[in-house]
């Protein structure tokens, strides 16, 4: 277990900066998720932690000790790579035991530890079988077992739940959270999936093109996204963003559409003077029959209904109750509480409220 500190950590490939200098302190036992779209630099950060890539600037410390000159195998990082493969000719037991054997633990201790890990992951019945007889989800579990068998100082997981079907993914995600709580080991976890990130993380680090755009608890990210990128990336149904201005009790968009806003305060109007970007979550809007907005698609999500419509030229989504009477082709008006509006600069790069 270790505290991990990143100071000014930078990475360049072929003259191009892929991780811009950043600082981050990870507490002992904390579960940190690096979240970002493809090529945002997530894997590169993990690889630097594990010592598989040198830094081009800054330093990484474990419990105050600079790791720059420490060989990967002495860093004590248990790392799970994307598409991590098992040894095909070894049994489940031999696979999970591999990292322990390499470190010369005695055989009864290894046996006990493998049994414990297998029990934790629900793979005890797979220990005597070979990987080719496993399903995708079973392979992934045993592979995770191979990483967590050794109580490393830091776990680094690169998309461990990718390539699994939705149900297995959901079940393993829940188990991941439980296991990480039980082991209490500092975990750095990479995913492009915001639902997974919010479900697992103590804190999420959001990356965009090699820059950290926000660090916060799942709730902080949801309630106060730092810019329009985070706003539209985080949340089960992404936030709507519009450019416009608040005029009296209406939000008037750039292309002339309006949304009724109630509870507008003087302060909020002043904040949003001139054109700015406004974010509105689909769950913060109510629909009223008769109005300028045409509904073009209605999707049932079970507990709720997702209504797709146009506000001016822009696509806009509203989460309505399952009982809504709104149908495709209806014309509706939108209403929203001023307190639910997120205000950003015109280009969306900064939050202003
Ligand atoms: N060995 C390398 N040589 C040159 N460029 C690289 C190398 N490894 C990564 N890159 C580049 O660095 C950038 C960040 O890559 P990285 O794999 O860290 O992104 P990522 O966020 O993990 O993406 P993904 O989710 O697709 O794995 C990308 O533009 C990638 O092309």
UniProtKB/TrEMBL annotation:
Highest taxon in the source lineage: Bacteria
InterPro entries noted in UniProt: AAA+_ATPase, ABC_transporter-like_ATP-bd, ABC_transporter-like_CS, ABC_transpr_MalK/UgpC-like, Mo/tungstate-bd_C_term_dom, NA-bd_OB-fold, P-loop_NTPase, Transp-assoc_OB_typ2
Keywords tagged on the record: ATP-binding, Cell membrane, Membrane, Nucleotide-binding, Translocase, Transport
Gene Ontology molecular function, alphabetical: ATP binding
Pfam family, one: TOBE_2
ABC transporter domain: residues covered: 4-234
SMART domains, alphabetized: AAA
Keyword Transport: yes
Protein name as annotated: Sn-glycerol-3-phosphate ABC transporter ATP-binding protein UgpC
Organism: Nocardioides endophyticus
């Amino acid at each position: 277990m270790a505290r991990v500190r990143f100071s000014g950590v930078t990475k360049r490939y072929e003259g191009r900066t892929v991780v811009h200098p950043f600082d981050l302190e990870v507490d002992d036992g904390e579960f940190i998720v690096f979240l970002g779209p493809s090529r945002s630099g997530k894997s590169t950060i993990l690889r630097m932690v594990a010592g598989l890539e040198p830094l081009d600037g800054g330093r990484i410390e474990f419990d105050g000790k600079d790791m720059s000159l420490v060989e990967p195998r002495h860093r004590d990082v248990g790392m799970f790579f994307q598409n991590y493969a098992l040894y095909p000719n070894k049994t489940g037991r031999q696979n999970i035991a591999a990292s322990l054997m390499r470190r010369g633990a005695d055989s009864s201790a290894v046996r006990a530890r493998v049994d414990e890990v297998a029990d934790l992951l629900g793979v005890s019945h797979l220990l005597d079988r070979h990987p080719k007889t496993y399903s995708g989800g079973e392979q992934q579990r045993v592979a995770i077992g191979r990483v967590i068998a050794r109580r490393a100082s830091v776990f680094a997981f690169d998309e461990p739940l990718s390539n699994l079907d939705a149900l297995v993914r959901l079940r393993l995600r829940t188990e991941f959270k439980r296991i990480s709580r039980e082991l209490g080991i500092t975990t750095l976890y990479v995913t492009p999936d915001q639902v997974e990130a919010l479900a697992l993380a103590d804190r999420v680090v959001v990356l965009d093109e090699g820059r950290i755009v926000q660090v916060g608890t799942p709730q902080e990210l949801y309630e106060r996204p730092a810019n329009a990128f985070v706003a539209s990336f985080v949340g089960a149904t992404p936030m709507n963003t519009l450019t416009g201005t608040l005029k009296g009790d209406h939000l008037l968009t750039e292309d002339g559409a309006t949304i009724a806003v109630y509870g507008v305060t003087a302060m909020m109007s002043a904040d949003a003077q001139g054109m700015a970007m406004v974010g509105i979550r689909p769950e913060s809007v109510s629909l009223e029959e008769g109005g300028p907005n045409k509904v073009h698609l209605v999707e049932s999500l079970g507990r709720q209904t997702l209504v797709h419509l146009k506000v001016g030229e822009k696509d806009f989504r509203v989460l309505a109750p399952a009982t809504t009477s709104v149908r495709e082709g209806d014309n509706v008006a939108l209403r929203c509480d001023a307190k639910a509006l997120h205000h950003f600069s015109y280009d969306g790069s900064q939050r202003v409220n």
